[in-house]
Structure formats: structure tokens, C-alpha cells
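Researcher: If only I could read C-alpha cells as easily as an amino acid sequence. Walk me, if you will, through where the backbone shape changes along the chain. I have put the entry right below:
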Amino acid sequence: MRVNLTTLLKNACPRSQAIGAFNTPNLESVQAVIAAAEAQNQPVIIMHAQIHESMIPMEVIGPVMIRLADQARVDVCVHLDHGEDLGYLLQAMKMGFTSVMYDGSRLPYEKNLTNTREIVRAAHYLGVSVEAELGRVLRPEGGGLPDADEKELTPAECYTDPEQAKSFVDATGVDALAIAFGTAHGLYEAEPCLDFKRIAAIHQWVDVPLVMHGGSGVSDSDFRKAIAAGITKINYFTYMSLAGGQAVKNWFAQQPGQTLRFDEIVEIGRAAMQADVTRAIKVFQG
């Protein structure tokens, strides 16, 4: 059943658990995530990121996500991840997405606040939840090219300030807040060093669910520490996608000279992604 983010996370907060949020840029990934959630009888968040528009447009994958969410035997939030302009966010809301994330983290604080407040006003009128981001979750070395301005930033300049987080949440009315505390998008060359005390401090200051971006590559024990400190939503994609690709690679390595139809290749990848999502969900349950 399709529900909004607020409904989903409200049930997770008191239980010291987090809900997994998985990017689903094709049919097979949507199927894999929902099947894993149903098998565990756990709610889940499926996401389309604006950065994936070149891979598959929202107008193509969005209706697929919505239909499969409606048919699911568990609660499913259909979420827009890292939307950067109001028009695109409104398109997702009107399509039937139940939650949107506005990413104004690269903007000056006041501009991020003003834009987020405007989006919250429109979204709440439509019954849609809003996640915003405060701080900067960067790409690690080896995880892709960073923005030009990211090269000059120190960790202290990227991390979310607890008092500023409270002011931002109070001023915008946002439903969830993505915070920066040491994670990064993409692949890690070394295990990240996470600031769990910062999570706990922000959790004390604000009364909305906190979100971890850059979840792939974090150890199981660090996931649990982050959840215990106050994280309620965890974004996860890279390692799920890699699991699908690696499964296909392994099949050909183990059976050299054999051929596969494309639909068989896709099914091998889908099954491997479902297994990886299942493992992640179990970790997030604590």
C-alpha cells in the first residue's frame, strides 16, 4: 500500500529501527525491493533520483513505482530523491509520489531555507511529505568526481550543526532531515569515520526523523550505532546495484562459453539485488 514518508517513519521512530530507502531506476530494481520488503513483512521506501533522469525519466519509471507500491502487501513510500528544482518536485507530487526530497544543500543557508519552506507549503497542501538536507554529503575519493567547490571543503564545514538544524526545521516545517556526519555517496576506498555524537546531538535538538545518505559501504555495526543515535531513514543504492552486476559476472565466470538470453541475465541480477536488499533490511531492523 502506498503511504507517505511521515506515516512510514512515525512507526519506526519509537522502535529504534530504520526504514531502508532504495533507488529503483528500472523495473527489476522496483520488483527486487518490494519483494524483499514483503518477504520480511517490513515497510520500505522506493526512490527515483533526479540524477537518474538520463537513465530513465521519471515520467516512465514513476507510474511503475506507483502501481507496484499500490499492489504491495506492505506499506511503501514512493519518494523523489535529490530533487533540485520546484517544477520537477511538483511534477513528482502530481504524478502520485508520496514524498519528495528537496536538495538545496549546495545553496547558501538562507536560500536553502526559503526554497524548502516554499516546497513544504505546496507539498503539505497535496498530502506529500518533504525531506530536506542540511550539510554536505560528499563523494569519497574513488566514488566519482566531486563538485568543484567540494574539493575545498573540510569535514567540519560539511557536517550538520545541531542548533542550525533546529532553526531550519522550525522555520521550514520539513518532515524529515538528511544530515551530514561522515558518510559519502558512492563507493568508499576505506571504511568511513562517522560522528555518532553529532547524530545524537541533532536528534536531541530536532523533533523530526533524521536521514542517512551515503549508506552503502557503512558496516553493519555502524548502521546500528547510527540508528541507536537517532537515524530513522537510510538511503542505500550502490551496493545493491553492484550485487546485481556481480551476480551476472559470476554466472559467466562459472560457466565459460555459455550464453544467456537478456531476460535470463536480468533475472539473475534482480534476484541478487533482492538478496542484498533483504540483508540490508535485516540490519536496519536491529
